[in-house]
Amino acid sequence: MAKRPTPAPAALHGRWILIVEDDCVTAMDLAETLSAAGAQIVGPAGTIESAFELLHRRPQLDIALLDIEVEGSFVFDVADELMKREVPIVFTTGYERSEIPSRFHNARHCEKPVGIAAIARALGEELARQESRDALT
């Protein structure tokens, strides 16, 4: 019998999640919802610079939630750093997947507008997917 995936709230409990989002209301809603699910929130960062500062202060992360465009700049340099650290990424964006550089095509992609619950579910599923990969290696 196949094991059922863990629901997002349980999967997020105790996990360190970096949030990079420049819309203040969305960022606070995400932080509040994910915290309520037991996650430890790093950020939210509203600029690329503040995202790198947070990465410097908290180098160990379980997953990152990145808005593709933050304050008019693309977040791909932050995503590259996270990939070097083998941190899974979930992108939120209004951009088409084809507009995202090919090196990030394996990352989860949530198209805006997307609900907070759907984002929490995507984070939980991505963490479960990462754990499954890790168990195979």
What features would you highlight for this structure?
137 residues; disordered N terminus; Rossmann fold; globular; five-stranded parallel beta sheet; 42% helix; two-stranded antiparallel sheet; alpha/beta
- Could you say what the CATH architecture is? 3-Layer(aba) Sandwich
Stretches with pLDDT under 50, minimum 5 residues: 1-7
The number of domains: 1
The CATH C-level name is Alpha Beta
Q: Oligomeric state of the chains?
A: single chain
CATH topology: Rossmann fold
Structural class: alpha/beta
CATH superfamily: Response regulator
Element-level helix/strand string: HEHEHEEEHEEH
Query: Strand share of the residues?
Result: 15-25%
What's the total count of β strands? 7
Residue share in helices? Answer: 40-55%
If helices are DSSP runs of H or I spanning 4 or more residues, what is the number of helices?
5
**Biggest sheet features:** 5 strands, parallel
Radius of gyration: 14 Å
Residue-averaged pLDDT: 89
The rough form would be described as globular
